UniProtKB/TrEMBL annotation:
Homotetramer. Signal peptide: none annotated. It comes from Ogataea parapolymorpha (strain ATCC 26012 / BCRC 20466 / JCM 22074 / NRRL Y-7560 / DL-1) (Yeast). Catalyzes the reversible reaction in which hydroxymethyl group from 5,10-methylenetetrahydrofolate is transferred onto alpha-ketoisovalerate to form ketopantoate. This is 3-methyl-2-oxobutanoate hydroxymethyltransferase.
């Protein structure tokens, strides 16, 4: 058979393979905006590796996956988001994206990857966007990073702003504190939000600001707001997946709702496994083992005897 004939015989199978993939369509920014205009509350959770990406993508109801730089703490064990190198975050994104096929994805620009200059910001952003499947990049900050944000939008990269508590700047505000409790501080947050909207941000993440301020902002702006620790009046809510699943045994913030205690259940499951191993009930010969025909085993023994 000629090489052309072989190729032609493969075409139907290749076509079937690609057509089956084509039935799975990843959500786009247009889909998110349609839900927002329909006043549908949006649900967002983070993912930090392939497994959590798969879990999030498997949810029929979830709208958005955020590859938050919070993975530095919940997945990599750093003390803050400031410490993770860009390459560590980049490879974490690659891992998450291998598990995502359907959800809209927002990825962070981690600390140190965009602040120095517009060119540094563009270089980091392009590297992340070339991974595919990322629909928007999130930049912490407002006025101070305006030039970087504007340039990303100019070259066609949708940007999600991040104001209120900015974890990448926690040293400057004395720790992880609620922002905007004083009138002037709240007014500054609103002005920053308007600025980010005006320069073209597609969405805004509002972290740890008073719920009335977050609701006021959401009603005033014409772009979706994503709240975390900012009350129920935002367009969307986001939680760290490790927090909502109870993956860690450490305390969580006031605004976190824990929907299961994965850590406790996982430890119990491991203890159960260890007990089965020590008692000899795992592995079970019938259930967990692979057989060999008796004649084959005897033939093996004869071969070994002959070799000696």
């Amino acid at each position: 058979m000629s090489s052309f004939s072989v190729f032609r015989s493969l075409v139907p199978r290749l076509g079937a393979r690609y057509s089956s993939h084509a039935t799975v369509r990843q959500k786009t920014l247009t889909d998110i905006k349609k839900l927002y205009k329909a006043k549908e509350p949006l649900a967002v959770i983070t993912a930090h590796d392939y497994i959590t990406g798969r879990i999030a993508d498997s949810s029929e109801k979830l709208d958005i996956i955020l590859i938050g730089d919070s993975l530095a703490m919940v997945s990599k064990g750093y003390a803050s988001t400031l410490e993770i190198p860009f390459d560590d975050y980049y490879y974490a994104c690659k891992s998450v994206l291998r598990g995502v096929n359907q959800k809209f994805v927002i990825a962070d620009l981690p600390f140190g990857s965009f602040e120095a200059s517009v060119s540094q910001c563009v270089e980091s952003a392009v590297k992340l966007m070339k991974l595919g499947k990322i629909g928007s990049l999130k930049v912490e900050g407002g006025f101070e990073h305006g030039e970087q944000i504007k340039r990303l939008i100019e070259i066609g990269i949708p940007v999600t702003g991040h104001i209120g508590l900015k974890p990448q700047q926690f040293n400057a505000v004395g720790g992880y504190r609620v922002q905007g409790r004083k009138a002037q501080d709240a007014a500054n947050i609103i002005k920053e939000a308007e600025y980010l909207r005006d320069i073209g941000c597609s969405m805004l993440l509002l972290e740890c600001i008073p719920h009335k301020v977050a609701q006021y902002l959401t009603e005033k702006l014409d772009i979706p707001t994503i709240g975390i620790g900012s009350g129920p009046g935002t367009s969307a809510q986001v939680l760290v997946q490790a927090d909502l699943l109870g993956m860690l045994d450490s305390p969580t913030a006031k605004f976190v709702q824990k929907y299961m205690n994965f850590h406790s259940e996982a430890v119990n499951a491991i203890d159960h496994y260890v007990g089965d191993v020590k008692s000899g009930t795992f592995p079970n010969i019938e259930t967990h083992s692979y057989p060999i025909k008796e004649e084959e085993f005897e033939a093996m023994e004869k071969i070994l005897q002959q070799d000696h």
